Amino acid sequence: MRDISKYQGIIPAFYACYAEDGTVSVDHTQAWAEYLVKKGVKGVYVGGSSGECIYQRVEERKKQLEALMEVAKGKMTVIAHVACNNTEDSCELAAHAQKHGVDAVASIPPIYFHLPEHSIAQYWNDISSAAPDTDFIIYNIPQLAGTALTMPLFHEMLKNPRVAGVKNSSMPIQDIQMFKMYGGNDFAVFNGPDEQLVGGLAIGADGAIGGTYGVMPELYLKIFELCKKGEYEKACPIQYDADKIIYEMCSCKGNMYAAIKEIIKRREGIELGGVRKPLSGLFEEDMVHVERCVKMIDEAISKYC
Ligand SMILES: CC(=O)N[C@H](C=O)[C@@H](O)[C@H](O)[C@H](O)CO
Ligand SMILES: CC(=O)C(=O)O
């Protein structure tokens, strides 16, 4: 039996942390990691969508992970997303992540070409073989990757004993139930869409990985605590407020992560830099949304936490 307790909790997706000149910042990465440790989150998911992985070079992703591990090791679960869309670079990052002691490596399927399932399985198993002593987590995000984790592909992947979980970001929460049912009790399924965390937990998710957890961790930690006690009716109003905040962040013309980093700077005084092109930074007209979000987050935290 695999012990999945290290995956049972709120796991913010770690934001890319840039210096003023746009390079990956060790200082900002470590300040952000320390903040999340203090907030009491279960772990972090580094180098995923929120980490702007597809806009970073292999060396930059290594630098960010190394900086993070100096702070996080032994204090938080670390899941490193290592996919680069080509097998060789992904394997290099997987081996690097294992060397630095992560708890798991994770990967989206290869994007752009719609490859047959045997090629996707080969891609994932190659990456997993490059980190042979480390758990492997499948990242299912069909709306962005263009390929879904089907049941036949899932069953094929379960033949690899290192496959320890699925981060499920597809919209039907039913998918969480199916992966959990066939994966078993010692297999970790993570809720992806933050907007339906309560639903994902109710149907059986063990933990949750999310792009908006970092900007308001208190709210999601509270939702998780209540849901684990079965107090769903108390968790729902917090979910509804969190969703309102997400919709407000997404009303910006600039990218959501640019809004998130600005909100964090205003609320917590922590600088994470901007976002990398082709993602857009914030526009003047976005500031009204940012201000609204700051206020809504402050109010929700004082109301529920
Ligand atoms: C499509 C996407 O990026 N999904 C993320 C991961 O599952 C979520 O955590 C979102 O960032 C979040 O639900 C906000 O829409
Ligand atoms: C948003 C998210 O979960 C990611 O960074 O992949």
Observed structural traits:
alpha/beta; globular; binds 2-(acetylamino)-2-deoxy-D-mannose; 305 residues; eight-stranded parallel sheet
Give the SSE map:
Layout: E1 10-12, H1 26-39, E2 43-46, H2 58-72, E3 77-81, H3 87-99, E4 104-107, H4 117-130, E5 135-140, H5 142-145, H6 151-158, E6 163-168, H7 173-183, E7 188-191, H8 197-202, E8 207-210, H9 217-228, H10 232-249, H11 256-268, H12 287-304
Parallel strand pairs: 1-8, 2-3, 3-4, 4-5, 5-6, 6-7, 7-8
The structure holds 2-(acetylamino)-2-deoxy-D-mannose and pyruvic acid.
Pyruvic acid is lined by residues 13, 45, 48-51, 209-211.
Task: Give an overview in words.
This protein is α/β, with parallel strands linked by helices and 305 residues long. It has a domain at 5-215: TIM Barrel, CATH 3.20.20.70. Helix content is 48%, strand content 12%. Helix 8 links the parallel strand 7 (188-191) and strand 8 (207-210). The longest helix has 18 residues, at 232-249. The chain is globular. The structure holds 2-(acetylamino)-2-deoxy-D-mannose and pyruvic acid. Pyruvic acid is lined by residues 13, 45, 48-51, 209-211. InterPro entries: Aldolase_TIM, DapA-like.
Number of helices: 12
The fourth-level CATH homologous superfamily of the domain at 5-215 is Aldolase class I
What is the molecular shape? globular
Second rung of CATH, namely the architecture of the domain at 5-215? Alpha-Beta Barrel
Total strand segments: 8
Query: Which secondary-structure class do the elements indicate?
Result: alpha/beta
CATH class of the domain at 5-215: Alpha Beta
Bound molecules: 2-(acetylamino)-2-deoxy-D-mannose, pyruvic acid
Helix content: 40-55%
Distance between the ends: 35 Å
Give a quick account of the main beta sheet: strands, pairing sense, barrel closure.
8 strands, parallel
Strand order of the largest sheet: 1-8-7-6-5-4-3-2
Q: What is the helix/strand order? A: EHEHEHEHEHHEHEHEHHHH
Mean pLDDT: 98
Cα-atom Rg, whole angstroms? 18 Å
Relative strand content: 5-15%
The fold-level CATH name of the domain at 5-215 is TIM Barrel
Contiguous uncertain segments of 5+ residues: none
